[in-house]
Amino acid sequence: MDEIRxxxxxxxxxxxxxxxxxxxxxxxxxxHPNAEQVYQQVRQTFSSISFTTVYKTMQTLEEAxxxxxxxxxxxxxxxxANVHPHPHFICLNCGRVDDLKEFPADLNDxxxxxxxxxPNRLRFVNLHFFxxxxxxxxxxxxx
Length: 143
Ligand SMILES: [Zn+2]
What we know:
By secondary structure, the chain is an alpha+beta fold.
């Protein structure tokens, strides 16, 4: 059984070809695509798939803990198959999203103790850094 099927099985999800294709697009991307971008890629293989199916599938994968979804502040949700807590860089101009390096051990310790110290059930952590990517940095405008 391949890795994706095993992951789906662990989460109690049936592995349909469409689900696998959608997850594969996200697992193979570092660009944190939005639902529309995932849809455009998946329909190259499944030409009759609808945007709604792609969107609902991504919701299912998110609920199963296989995807993380976050708002970049522009009311556009972006998706990430890396569900371990990690910070993101978001470009204020073009909306590009990059991973920043993993949290240090003491921050991870803090996150774990914070989770233990509250009766609330924590599901995910978002930490976003905003600024300009090299293409959009002031001074690069006229290139
Ligand atoms: Zn990420």
